[in-house]
Design a protein that fits this description.
By secondary structure, the chain is mostly beta strands. The chain is built from no helices and 24 strands.
Length: 305
């Protein structure tokens, strides 16, 4: 992202009898760009996987799709601000990202998401860690981007912190969302009547007015849409508060964006006049009507052109 490159495109066909096989092996797709594809029908299900770097890069994947004669659809890959997201189930809906069972809390969000597709971490290109805190005290830290933590039965205020970073050879073609830190705040206590209690994680969404290189023009008054989504264990309430700040120096100094709400939709206005050539780090804080919140810092979310 942020540089011209060839992404690895893998297409898998699934037949009604249950057989699945790749079509054409690993194809290279020039990015940024657009292309038109034609698919056969007759009960074939099509699954697509896309990676910015082979063999160590991440993979974004789409749900299995069957097409009708004459059907048309459009999709965008690697759009918006890429960051951790809810995992996807087999039908393309949100999967379970975090739950509490008795006195244990476990969390395993998808490493990447672009709003339309889920994403798995690259084997030697994506690293991360997770920490859980209760009432300000750490209950443990895992050197991987997921974890299971022992917690007391009594209700308390929790913070779940997920840090992710792109490294190594895959980082050469990944110049956006180079580092992300996400902190979820929620309350939890033991419910002896429930085998599984969903943890109320909010995943930020960004409507970014970007071009194919994930840049914005050096102009004032540009709108970034702000939203949240949940996962199979939690449906968010309406947003009740939103903040967005941006930085040109990797978070050393921040400028607060003007945030407005209209008919339930939230937007932040960023001013980039005179900032051509600068990378932009975003810091977002979002709260829903149920009192749960998320804050997220995305290093080099986009550049100014």
């Amino acid at each position: 992202m942020g540089v011209k490159s060839d992404y690895v495109d893998t297409l898998v066909a699934g037949r009604p009898h249950g057989g699945r096989f790749p079509v054409g092996g690993f194809d290279l797709v020039g990015v940024p760009g657009t292309r038109t594809e034609l698919y056969s029908t007759a009960g074939t299900g099509w699954e697509r996987y896309l990676s910015s770097s082979f063999p160590w890069g991440e993979y974004l994947d789409d749900e299995k799709r069957e097409y009708r004669a004459g059907q048309r659809r459009e999709e965008t890959w690697y759009g918006g601000v890429l960051a951790p997201a809810a995992p996807r189930d087999a039908s393309g809906g949100p999967g379970l990202a975090a739950e509490r069972q008795a006195n244990r809390i476990g969390a395993a969000p998808a490493f990447w998401g672009d709003g339309e597709h889920g994403g798995a971490a690259g084997s030697f290109g994506d690293i991360g860690s997770m920490e859980l805190r209760r009432d300000g005290e750490s209950l443990g830290r895992n050197p991987y981007p997921f974890g299971v933590f022992d917690v007391p039965a009594e209700e308390g205020a929790y913070e779940l912190i997920l840090s992710t970073t792109k490294i190594g050879q895959p980082a050469a073609v990944w110049k956006r969302s180079t580092r992300v830190e996400t902190t979820w705040k929620f309350r939890s206590g033991l419910d002896e009547s429930a085998y599984s209690q969903g943890i109320p994680l909010l995943f930020p969404g960004y409507g970014l007015p970007e071009d194919g290189m994930k840049t914005l023009p050096a102009a004032d008054g540009q709108k970034i849409g702000l939203s949240v989504s949940g996962h199979a264990g939690y449906t968010p309430g309406a947003l009740t508060a939103a903040k967005l700040s941006y930085s040109y120096d990797d978070g050393e100094t921040w400028t607060d964006a003007k945030v407005a709400e209209q008919s339930g939709s939230w937007t932040a206005t960023v001013n980039h006049a005179g900032a051509a050539g600068k990378p932009v780090t975003l810091k977002t804080e979002l709260t829903d009507a149920k009192g749960n919140s998320v804050s997220q810092v995305v290093a080099r979310a986009y550049d100014v052109r």
